[in-house]
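Q: Predict the bound structure with nicotinamide-adenine-dinucleotide.
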Amino acid sequence: MANVLVTGGAGYVGSVCCAELLRRGHSVTVVDDLSTGCRNAVPAGAAFFQVDIGNQSAMQSLVSHIRFDAVFHFAAKALIPESVSNPGMFFQHNVASGIAMLEVLRAAGIRNFVFSSSAAVYGTPERVPIEEDDPKNPVNSYGETKLMFERILEWYARAYGWSVTALRYFNASGATAELGERHDPETHIIPLLLQAAAGERKVFNIYGDEYDTPDGTCVRDYVHVLDIASAHICALQKLNNPGMSAYNIGLGASYSVREVCKAAAELTGRAIPLRISARREGDPAVLCASPKRIMRELGWTPEHSSLREIIESAWQWKQRQLSSALAISSSLH
Ligand SMILES: NC(=O)c1ccc[n+]([C@@H]2O[C@H](COP(=O)([O-])OP(=O)(O)OC[C@H]3O[C@@H](n4cnc5c(N)ncnc54)[C@H](O)[C@@H]3O)[C@@H](O)[C@H]2O)c1
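A: Predicted complex:
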């Protein structure tokens, strides 16, 4: 069993991965500055430290007290619109703070690292499905920071014999019974649709309906967060196996925005008002992964990523959140 340090374990994907690690008998320690995460998302059973990964003395004190077998690195700024308006903050958090952390890990002799990378490293693809060695031309500073950090890690693997696995997630989505997506502001399609279904927002915006796709709206590859967690568990096979590997985490199947809207309305049984808005800069028409490499090399098999399971699980989680908020507010009156 591994002793894993999880950065960003109070966030959406990180918290689900922590729960999955614990369920499989691993030990988990979370560091998170709670800048976008929630303390109560950290599963019981994980140790928690509210620390900025760029704080070298706090990180150093932690790794000198606990011997970690591996680091799962989720902590990052990840809101793409914010990365367009504020690139400096993205380079600071996702690259500069990341390097500060890597140096602490190196000094402590930690050599196994799993990195949450992104489909954003590819930018607008030249072909789909995208394979890992295809060209990488990020179109926003978020994607650029992910690509830079992958390259930095490659040098750590070469120079220091680290074992590094970069997992390039496509659209993370879905929920477990306890944990789901709650970014603020929310920019992801499924939680936005469910907010509209729940009456929390008046309308769902479709950004552009004149793309070169069958129904004119953008096409994306959605992967359930539990399948992302299982990809991380697969990555543990590479522990102590020096070198750098990168894998796409997607289905190789994709849906248009209109198809997702239709499925959300059907599965929630609610009307979702739609509005066509202008295209957003840097939104490729189609993003779709080839997941063949991780399936072949690490035996990853997605089990939860049908569009139905993704939307139903996210809707069930949202309804539980709404009823507990209601119960709290009525107990206060
Ligand atoms: N959600 C997706 O669709 C998606 C897709 C591709 C890649 N990713 C990557 O997966 C990771 C997790 O994404 P998410 O959607 O769960 O985001 P999130 O915002 O929910 O989680 C990020 C967590 O990191 C913490 N954090 C941020 N900066 C920190 C710092 N300097 N020190 C310590 N903690 C810090 C935040 O408080 C938060 O808990 C990110 O690296 C993101 O880039 C996500």
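A: The chain has a mean pLDDT of 96.
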